[in-house]
Design brief:
Elements lengths: L19 H16 L3 H28 L1 H8 L6 H15 L3 H24 L11 H18 L4 H24 L4 H4 L6 H17 L6 H31 L10 H21 L3 H29 L1
């Protein structure tokens, strides 16, 4: 007989990579609440996102030491890229709080994780795939957003070029992911189908950071402005399609992938608010605020579902 592996009763529970969506969702709401002036609520969400990130980081470290086969198996799946996106999003919120050194450190960490995880995921791509396939774009654009945020905080111009390269690469990865996405998931997905719109939203957010950079002028600035507005329009259109699908075919049971619904809702609101400022289109601010409060409501509903699931 083969001996069964011994497990310690004090071993922490294994957290699936998809749980990174909770960090992304909470971090996006923190940024959005800060943009509309709710600094206290934003700080609470920031602290909660940071705590969740630490829990997930400890869990990943534990698995790397104690269960390497599982760690490597999970690193091949798109949800593993939430580690990059969540780290970069926390860096963005840190920079907005004036913690630029912490933001730079988180950018370095996310950048170190990104190529290995992206390569591992791309090596195991197939057709068709669920909405999590768009995380290749989200992770890449999250680095562009953080780089652009640091540039606006006074970092060097080289980061502006890095942000532009990442922005273009993220768009290329979105198109590749779109060819692999199972469009039936739009009506059947358990929550991560919303990343299809969230990836476009974070792309437009990255574009808004580039627009505000003084490095781009003339035709280059106009091209970035037009591209950013088109990306935001597409994100809002996807948002409307996905919302219609949810209303037509309600999926009310809790699933951990529901955090991947809240994140796109939150990041779409943040992108709309940021693009409104960058392009000087005031009415987008009203749209962004409405989207943000709907994302806050979705966050609480998802949390309630999680607590009910834990209670059962």
């Amino acid at each position: 007989m083969t001996a069964r592996p011994r497990t310690s009763p004090f071993s922490p529970p294994v957290v699936p990579p998809a749980a990174g969506g909770a960090v992304l969702a909470t971090g996006a709401l923190s940024v959005g609440l800060l943009l509309i002036g709710y600094t206290v609520l934003s700080a609470v969400a920031f602290a909660l996102a940071g705590a969740l990130w630490l829990v997930l980081a400890l869990d990943v470290g534990f698995r790397l030491v104690r269960d390497r086969p599982r760690w490597f198996a999970e690193a091949d799946t798109p949800p593993a890229l939430t580690a990059v996106a969540a780290t970069a999003l926390l860096g963005t919120r840190s920079s907005l709080a004036g913690l630029h050194h912490l933001a730079a450190a988180l950018l370095a960490l996310a950048s170190a994780l990104w190529p290995g995880l992206l390569t591992a995921v791309a090596r195991h791509w197939k057709r068709p795939m669920p909405g999590s396939v768009f995380l290749v774009c989200v992770a890449t654009q999250s680095l562009a957003v953080l780089s652009g945020t640091l540039v606006l905080a006074g970092a060097g111009d080289w980061l502006t070029w890095a942000a532009l390269v990442l922005f273009c690469l993220g768009l290329a990865l979105y198109l590749e992911a779109l060819t692999r996405y199972d469009f039936r998931q739009t009506w059947r997905g358990a929550g991560d189908q919303w990343i299809a719109s969230g990836a476009l939203a974070i792309s437009s957010l990255a574009g808004s950071k580039l627009i505000l950079s003084p490095l781009w002028t003339g035709s280059a600035h106009e091209a970035l402005r037009t591209t950013t507005l088109v990306l935001l329009a597409l994100a809002l259109a996807w948002h409307a399609v996905l919302l219609t699908a949810e209303l037509a075919r309600p999926r009310l049971h809790y699933d951990i992938r529901r955090w991947s619904t809240v994140f796109p809702m939150g990041i779409t609101a943040v992108a709309t608010l940021s693009v409104s400022t960058a392009t000087d289109i005031p009415w987008l601010d009203t749209v962004g605020r409405a989207l943000l409060w709907s994302a806050v409501a979705a966050w609480f509903l998802t949390l309630a579902g999680l607590l009910r699931s834990c209670a059962r």
